[in-house]
Amino acid sequence: MTRLFNVILRIGHFPRSWKMGRVNAIPKVGKDPQLATSQRPITLLYHIAKMFELIALRRLHRHLTPRREQFGFRSGHSTTLHLARVLHNRGRRTVGVFLDIEKVFD
């Protein structure tokens, strides 16, 4: 598998079949199951594709050093921790970017 993954990274071609997934709709609790907005889509991917993703992510993390100020997409760094940090930085200017992605997958 290591050789296969290295070839994929070297030639830059990810197999098309690995990009396919099976979407299952899970009804949201307390919502009308007949409505499309009451369904939560869950995509099941091939296990080999997920394994490749994990290995590629580990390799990338070796070369990426997120800034100290970045809290998103970092383990052990939550929005709550960042908010606490902002509140304790009185007298300094702070910029915040907030995205509302509640219905991003509808």
Automatic annotation (TrEMBL):
InterPro entries: DNA/RNA_pol_sf, RT_dom. Keywords: Nucleotidyltransferase, RNA-directed DNA polymerase, Transferase. PROSITE patterns: RT_POL. The lineage of its organism: Eukaryota, Metazoa, Ecdysozoa, Arthropoda, Hexapoda. It comes from Eumeta variegata. GO terms for molecular function: RNA-directed DNA polymerase activity. This is Probable RNA-directed DNA polymerase from transposon X-element. PANTHER family: REVERSE TRANSCRIPTASES (PTHR19446). Coiled coil: none annotated. Residues 7-106 form the Reverse transcriptase domain.
